[in-house]
Amino acid sequence: MIGVIDYGAGNLGSVMNALFRLGKNPRFLRGPEELRTSGRKARFERIIFPGDGHFARTMESLTQTGYAQAICEWIAADKPFLGICIGLQLLFESSEEAPPVDGKTIKGLSVISGSVKRFPGRKVPHIGWNKTQTRQDSRLFRGLEQDMFFYYIHSYYAAPKDRIFQTASADYYLNFCSGLEMGALAALQFHPEKSGSAGIRVIENWLSY
Question: pLDDT per residue over 76-85, tens digit each?
Fold first, then answer.
């Protein structure tokens, strides 16, 4: 079964609808305990963390509810995980959207080394369709052209310290990371569920991991 993490943010419905169109039967998680193995078999086989959100507020929610630790344990076990938009950014160590409070840095999940930065230009957020360059050896973009248009809406971008896991990028004032793959972990800055047939193909590819 596919589990979708509901942490109170928007845009969850469009992800659920995309999965239903693919003939899947996703369920919202009722709590972080459902990410942990119950007996011999876990309730969910793969997890999606979608949506729009504020880095600091989302991390605070995940920490208070116990989701932060459970997500890190899931990823460390190399179980299929797909992060979308804020679901990609939270994998990093910190974000300019969450400046230090009383000298204390608000940490992300720290699965990927690097930080999240605000776009330097005046026209922010970055909204709409943008050409995305993908790596030829990517499982996530298998069967798609290397230059495809996907739908974005964000003011901050991820800047990994090492781009070895980066499999997609796009340009907006600068070239930024828009896709990552690391084992069973995949993460996207764009919204595949809002990106037409190409986006649906990306989700299908992830479902075959």
Answer: 999 999 999 9
Q: What is the pTM of this model?
A: 0.94
Which is catalytic among the residues 33, 73, 193, 204? 193
What is d(CA 209, CA 205) in angstroms, rounded to the nearest whole number? 7
Cα Rg, the chain, nearest whole Å: 16
Q: Is 85 a catalytic residue?
A: yes
What would the pLDDT profile of 175-204 be if each residue is shown by its tens digit?
999 999 999 999 999 999 999 999 999 999
Q: Which CATH superfamily is domain 2-207 in?
A: Class I glutamine amidotransferase (GATase) domain (3.40.50.880)
- 191 a catalytic residue: yes
Q: Per the residue annotation, which of 34, 85, 97, 181 is the catalytic one? A: 85
Catalytic residue among 60, 126, 191, 204: 191
* CB 54 within 8 Å of CB 90: no
